[in-house]
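Database export, one record per block. Field names are fixed; values are copied verbatim from the stored entry.
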Amino acid sequence: MATNWYNRANYNPASIARENYIYLFSNVQRQWFGVGGSPTVLNVQASQYIYNMHSAFGISLVSDKLGLTSTINPMFTYAYRISGSSDWSVSMGLSAGIFSRTVDGSQFEPGVIADPALYNNLITSFLPDANTGIEFQSKYLIAGISSTHLFSIGNAESSFLNSNHLYGYLIYKNTDSEVLNYNAGMQIVKGPILTVFEGNASLRFKKATGLTTGPHEIFDIGLSYRTSNQLILLLGVNMSPNMRIGYAYDQSFSVGFNVNSSHEIMLEYRIPSAVSSSCNCKSEGLWYY
């Protein structure tokens, strides 16, 4: 996914420990646009932090369709947050669920119809699945490491099975200005046979209101580059103070590989929640400021 810069819970369960809101997040990605059977990925997540318990709870569902194969990956997520002051926090998270993959043999279009190695029925497998991670946050820095598909550690890379991936990232963020936010980050993804580095920089423009709620965010633009020779343009628009839609355009420049682009659409919605807030304000209208 390209919009993981907006929502790190795609691969690090620790990042759901965020104050003040119930978070609803979804994105859908269509890769290699124009190629039959190309991958389509749907990701839906919901989470809430409960301040008195220092804990966050979440659910997620990832669906991946690629050619003859499809996967469904439902997960429950828990994260615990430690904060010594308002300046920093450390969160630890764990996701657990099921990874199900189906291969539909009836969709084969073989060159040799009588090939005895082919089959034309459905084959479905169910495997236990788990992710874990830790994340540090301060006013200007976010750093985290995570590991996905823990039960696949040590398994060989396979197109038909989930495989363990390691993630590490460091992000600098600055929200001091009333005109714009900006951040820059670096991420490393290590799989069984491939390691990819990705850099990102983005700006989010704001409109000053002069109110105690602070400036309103309007739109953002970002750029990412992966060492797998991919360039990504990120765009986002705040439809309201608590709802944002986003779009990512991913173009590959690898010589000898398919150059068709990938497209991704994102929807983020947050609901102010009193049980998630660290503010014990007496005025009900001001508790989330």
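Remark 1: Residues 3-286 form a domain with the Porin fold (CATH 2.40.160.60).
Remark 2: The longest strand covers residues 69-85.
End of record.
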